[in-house]
Amino acid sequence: MARVCQVTGRKPVVGHKVSFSNKKKLRRFFPNLQTKRFFFAEEDRWITLKLSTDAIRTINKNGLIATVKELRAKGITV
Description:
By secondary structure, the protein is of the alpha+beta class. The chain has one domain (13-74): CATH 2.30.170.40. The chain is built from 2 helices and 4 strands. The model has no long low-confidence stretch (mean pLDDT 94).
């Protein structure tokens, strides 16, 4: 399950690389994933997540506790 954001579920998409002569060749567009550690105070431990930069902003807005509760409700182990 590489190159998938654990919060938003973003994964690579397929598109065309277009040359000057307008030849089209398939390529992949990868999400901007970062490995980030958060201190989860409720369980007194560190959590390492593979996140897109959009998901990092979501955690900053909603809080880590709310995001972890949503992930566990979906069945994702954190």
